[in-house]
Amino acid sequence: MPVITPTDYNPFFPFTNGHINTIFPAVFRNQAPPPYRRERITTPDNDFLDIDHLHNGNKRLAILCHGLEGSSSSQYIQGTARILHANDWDVIAMNYRSCSGEMNRQLRMYHSGATIDLHTIIDQKEADYERIVLVGFSLGGNMVLKYIGDGIYPLNSKIEKAVAVSVPVDLMGGSIEISKRKNRIYDRRFLKSLNEKALKKHQQFPEVIRIEDLNKVKTLSDFDNYFTGPIHGFKDAADYYQKCNSKQFLTAIKIPTLILQAQDDPFLSKSCFPIEEAKANKQLTLLIPKYGGHVGFSIPGKDHYWEELKILEYLNEAGLSAYTSY
After folding, report:
1. Could you tell me if 97 and 125 are in contact, meaning their C-beta atoms sit under 8 angstroms apart?
2. Mean pLDDT of all residues in the chain?
3. Which CATH architecture has domain 3-170+249-325?
């Protein structure tokens, strides 16, 4: 399927800068929070998941998956939830283990390839719906793409489409990119939150979590090497990245899937733009606008940002054929 360079997102200065477009929504976007209803789900391993619903009795469901250290309160999740709910979709916004405001019970938390909790939610909710779509952002986008492509879980026949936005489909490449000096502001912000969670996990499991290893953590890759990887059964960060990157599964995807990556995304390496994979799989559409930053796509003063409009357009089958192919 086509690799498309859309021309209808032309932000004014300073939003032609990928860093500004990344930071602005997280800091300055002002939107009313959706009227979520929270539900706590018990997982098969006796942990819990807190999910937030927007429910109007619709027969189609969108499940939203947030990025690293995000939640159902992340601005891009709220914006997407509001526009989909206003257009006759029920919505479930996930909060991964440790991301709902309360630390989870078990040792494991979440990571880019942890699809088991997404599968649990689908398994518990599919009976109420005729159609299901999956929408993931950044880490959540990798999770969604891996889930629909790796074949570990049988894909429910009601899952008809998927969308992934600002996705580090090559986890190693993305890790190297975010650790560069130009991205230290993001690296440090993520590490502050992750290090705090490592301390809490040490309090829960002092015999397992080597808290002294925090002294060795200078980058996100270091955290994955000493904590994310070992906690979740991987040898180290490299093993985790190799086994969980979604790029290797893209050619196996069998449902219509939109991948949306801004060319100026400061988090993404060149290897995170799966051009050849998209050309090789008729189910994939790769949208690569010139601007947008990382989960940015800001349209200040408007209710909905550009990527939210594109998500709705794709899920409502309006198509993307008007754009110019790469």
Report:
1. no
2. 95
3. 3-Layer(aba) Sandwich (3.40)
